[in-house]
Amino acid sequence: MEPTIYEAVGGYDALVRLAHAWHQRCLADPVASHPFGHPGQHPDHLARLATYWAEALGGPADYSAAMGDESHVERLHAGNGEHHDLDERAIACFEAALGDADLPDDPRLHATLAAYFRWGTGLMARHPDSPDDVPAGLALPHWSWDGPVTT
Ligand code: HEM
């Protein structure tokens, strides 16, 4: 059977490296650094982000089991107005981070991860007006080698 994206990238540890690399790229960017570094953000942000990505990419469902659902995550990102420039900068930082994180040198894997992140950024931007607009009980969305998983 074909490996999951989670397996192909190298599992949780590889996704933690990717989360760190993305965060470093964002912090170094004049636009993408703005959302980060405010007081009150979760101290385990990068581990939680990697756990979320693991689940979305075919790994264990630990985020949903222990941390939250999609509604929780989208509420964290909601209510900041439209911010297309920020989103594009964050996507560019992610694409650069793919080269920083010591991942398998596999162009299909890199393209799949980049497509996932672009899609995910769109999901996070769905509720610009208020976190109250995010419906309750959303399931964490999954991404496959063929794009979004629809159940
Ligand atoms: C424009 C792009 C993005 C920006 C600027 C951004 C920013 C942030 C910030 C500032 C936090 C910390 C929130 C807090 O603790 O108060 C956060 C948490 C998080 N973000 Fe994003 N994010 C972006 C895209 C994404 C994408 C594409 C995903 C998933 C595919 C994602 C998943 C998460 C998760 C899982 C958390 C942690 C939630 C938790 O603490 O349980 N983010 N993000």
UniProtKB/TrEMBL annotation:
Domain of life, source organism: Bacteria
The keyword Heme is annotated on this UniProt entry: yes
Pfam families recorded: Bac_globin (PF01152)
TM region(s), chain numbering: none
GO molecular function (one): heme binding
Binding site for heme: 72
Alphabetic keyword roster: Heme, Iron, Metal-binding, Transport
Protein name: Oxidoreductase
Organism of origin: Nocardioides luti
